[in-house]
């Protein structure tokens, strides 16, 4: 922690500019207390770690939820200075007793809580914190430590854990939504991971944009970014789906195992599932299971049995689909910070993709008709060719 109160009543904020002799003099004349629990804390002025206050061993404090690394303390200090020079008045480690929360930084004028999250915390803890902030009309801005960002070699795919999915930022007015904000105190720079399209429970297709801290202003204006060249990204997606098909036989994900079982029961070689499954769309993040699994479930169980020329209502197929996904062991995400979306949006997006494939035709807002049957590929070459045709590459 960077904030404590001295026995003489002085508030010591170590994010501000201090000289070591001054702090050593204050330390000689005072003891220090945590502003949350009033317990004694020790001022550490070592050379290996950033200066900080530390609770005594085995101390219990409602405001201290997890240990802070040097990386985290340094990042918190830099973000404090970054906001200060923009004429904001950031409050360091302000404690909210009713919420039992102490964000790293708080902007009272904008009612925004900054959480610089470097370590992994349980999803339920994250969700509880986020909900408590929002109930108090505080916007939680989760900034992730850049060490958490993992990129696949030579591609536009990144590995995200569930904490990152729960930290997604959404904006209806932004072409780059959803996005994530990362910060590295070692390079003093932000990395914006944007235009995120989930491929599976942990892998996403996305673009990145890095900005030095000194050239960045708050709030972040995402629409000032340059749109990614989609052709390059779709090439990666196509190669990924081909690799997935080639190694589907060794995939032990429960949803994938059930998909293979259902396909074999229907007489379909499981790595030759329909071309139209595994299509990127805007709201895939509502599914924890891979897109190609739940899309195959929809195609095989709902669309395939319908005669060509049949019309149907979206509400009907959505209800049927939700009742079916349990048999495929498909997992969904029920809690995401997107108030203007729902899992039904993912299915509606997919139906519109099928319209572009020519399988469906949209009659009106809620009605579709089946125009042709599914296409089952005979080789990976055919998969690549037909997907390139779909993406008009």
Describe it for me?
The protein has helices at residues 20-29, 70-84, 123-135, 162-166, 230-246, 254-265, 291-303, 314-324, 343-357, 380-390; strands at 3-6, 11-13, 32-33, 40-44, 52-55, 91-92, 105-107, 112-117, 139-145, 150-151, 157-159, 180-184, 189-198, 203-212, 311-313, 360-362, 367-370. It is an alpha+beta fold and 393 residues long. It folds into 3 domains: 1-64, no CATH class; 67-226, 3-Layer(aba) Sandwich (Endonuclease, Chain A); 235-390, no CATH class. Strands 6-7-8-9-12-13-14-11-10 form a 9-stranded mixed β-sheet. A 5-stranded antiparallel β-sheet has the order 2-1-3-4-5, with no helix packed on it. Helix 5 (230-246) packs antiparallel against helix 10, helix 6 runs parallel beside helix 7 and helix 7 (291-303) crosses helix 8 (314-324).
Radius of gyration: 25 Å
CATH overall fold name of the largest domain:
Endonuclease, Chain A
How many beta-strand segments? 17
How many domains? The number is: 3
User: Order of strands in the sheet with the most strands?
Assistant: 6-7-8-9-12-13-14-11-10
Helix content: 25-40%
The general outline is: elongated
* Uncertain regions spanning at least 5 consecutive residues: none
Intertermini distance:
53 Å
Number of helical segments with 4 or more residues: 10
Class by helix and strand content? alpha+beta
Main pleated-sheet profile: 9 strands, mixed
List key phrases describing it.
single chain; 393 residues; alpha+beta; Endonuclease, Chain A; 9-stranded mixed β-sheet; 17 strands; 31% helix; elongated
């Amino acid at each position: 922690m960077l904030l404590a109160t001295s026995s003489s009543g002085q508030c010591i904020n170590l994010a501000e500019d201090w000289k070591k002799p001054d702090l050593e003099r204050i330390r000689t004349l005072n003891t220090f207390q945590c502003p949350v629990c009033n317990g004694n804390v020790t001022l550490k002025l070592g050379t290996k770690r950033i200066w900080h206050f530390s609770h005594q061993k085995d101390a219990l404090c409602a405001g201290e939820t997890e240990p802070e690394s040097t990386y985290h303390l340094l990042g918190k200090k830099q973000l404090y200075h970054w906001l200060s020079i923009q004429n904001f008045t950031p409050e360091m480690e302000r404690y909210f007793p009713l919420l039992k929360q102490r964000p790293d930084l708080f902007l009272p004028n904008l009612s925004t809580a900054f959480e610089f999250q470097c370590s992994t915390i349980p999803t339920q803890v994250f969700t509880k914190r986020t909900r408590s902030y929002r109930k108090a009309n505080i916007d939680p801005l989760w900034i992730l430590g850049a060490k958490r960002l993992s990129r696949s070699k030579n591609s536009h795919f990144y590995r995200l854990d569930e904490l990152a999915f729960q930290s997604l930022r959404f904006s209806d007015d932004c072409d780059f939504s959803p996005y994530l904000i990362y910060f590295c105190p070692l390079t003093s720079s932000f990395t914006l991971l944007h235009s995120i399209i989930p491929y599976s429970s942990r892998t996403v297709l996305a673009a990145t944009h890095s900005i030095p801290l000194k050239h960045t202003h708050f709030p972040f204006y995402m629409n000032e970014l340059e749109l990614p060249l989609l052709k390059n990204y779709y090439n990666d997606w196509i190669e990924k789906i081909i690799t997935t098909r080639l190694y589907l036989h060794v995939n032990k994900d429960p949803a994938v195992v059930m998909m293979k079982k259902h396909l074999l029961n229907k007489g379909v070689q499981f790595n030759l599932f329909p071309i139209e499954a595994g299509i990127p769309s805007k709201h895939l993040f509502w599914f924890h299971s891979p897109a190609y699994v739940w899309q195959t479930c929809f195609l095989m169980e709902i669309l395939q049995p319908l005669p060509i020329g049949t019309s149907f209502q979206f509400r009907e197929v959505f209800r049927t689909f939700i009742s079916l996904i349990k048999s495929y062991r498909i997992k969904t995400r029920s809690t995401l910070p997107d108030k203007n979306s729902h899992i039904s949006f993912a299915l509606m997006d997919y139906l519109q993709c099928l319209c572009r494939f020519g399988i469906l035709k949209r009659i009106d807002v809620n009605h579709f008709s089946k125009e042709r049957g599914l296409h089952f590929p005979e080789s990976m070459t055919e998969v690549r060719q037909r997907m390139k045709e779909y993406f008009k590459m």
